[in-house]
Write a structure and sequence with these properties.
The chain has 266 residues and is α+β, with helices and mostly antiparallel strands. The protein has helices at residues 3-17, 21-27, 30-36, 127-137, 205-214, 232-235; strands at 45-47, 84-94, 104-108, 138-141, 144-147, 157-161, 167-173, 184-190, 196-202, 240-244, 248-249, 255-264. 20% of the residues lie in helices and 26% in strands. It holds the Pfam family Dioxygenase_C.
């Protein structure tokens, strides 16, 4: 295996697993610790198309270990506290940018304190607890790692079908961060023809820092210690063109974004 591919494999594994016993073992060895460092170029993470006329093919990324089917709904907050975030997605064919009607659009992300619904709170900011939980509860199939949920919570998970304009909208909160990753939201799209996009969308670091240092409950943990260039999932991807949310306050001063997702035309 070439050096660059070996580095991407190791970094990708670390990113998918979060922090594991394997990752802890690797980090204690100087040569492997160097390989474990993310080598992603932040310039390759660019803003997603919004309401502009153009579209791009959305880059695929890993599903991650914390996926399970979401309930059909647009407001996914339940009882979670945090900064409100309005998300609108438009699903379009690439390269002609025509809307995709009837696609199943599913999103999931952690809460303001870094917890995914269905999984223990204790693993979010404790590297060793995270390692032990993943080691003891994960299973791998087709090179994908998955962890079955341990409770019935489903906050910050939802799915909808795209309308005739290819659009869906969700009301959620700005996600927090947890060990091993930069802040992100997972998106999974499946069309009627079983075409699929599986990816993750990211946030501007300055916006994250502002929210994480000034608003409860984010501020109890402060800024995310991991930088974009060191994120394992991003480092295992050749590029992340179009995977950065463009977020701004709407007329009601609520953070909002319109994100166009391109899926290869059948």
């Amino acid at each position: 295996m070439a050096k660059s591919n070996r580095r991407k494999f190791i970094i990708g594994t670390a990113g998918i697993l979060g922090t594991t016993v394997l990752g802890t073992w690797l980090l204690r060895r100087p040569i492997l610790r160097q390989l474990m460092k993310g080598d992603f170029n932040p310039e390759l993470l660019t803003s997603a198309p919004g309401e502009e006329d153009y579209c791009i093919l959305t880059v695929q990324q890993t599903e991650g270990p914390f996926f399970f089917p979401s309930p059909a709904r647009s407001d996914i907050r339940e009882d979670r506290k945090g900064k409100e975030l309005q998300l609108k997605f438009q699903i379009v064919n690439h390269p002609d940018c025509t809307p995709v009607e009837g696609a199943n659009v599913e999103i999931w992300h952690c809460d303001a304190e870094g917890t995914y619904s269905g999984y223990p709170e204790e693993i979010t900011h404790d590297e060793w607890a995270s390692a032990m939980f993943l080691l003891n509860n994960s299973e791998t199939m087709d090179d994908k790692m998955h962890v079955n949920p341990v409770n019935e919570n489903k906050f910050l998970r939802g799915r909808q079908q795209s309308d005739s304009n290819g659009e869906v909208a969700f009301t959620t909160i700005f996600p927090g961060w947890y060990v091993g990753r930069v802040p992100h939201i997972h998106v999974k799209i499946t069309t009627r023809e079983n075409r699929e996009v599986l990816s993750q969308f990211y946030f501007d670091t300055n916006l994250c820092d502002e929210i994480y240092t000034s608003i409860e409950p984010y501020s109890q943990y402060g800024k995310c210690p991991l930088k974009i260039e060191n994120d394992g999932v991003l480092a295992s991807t050749e590029n992340a063109f179009g995977l950065m949310f463009s977020i701004a306050p709407n007329e009601n001063q609520v953070l909002s974004t319109v994100t166009k997702i391109g899926i290869v035309n059948s």
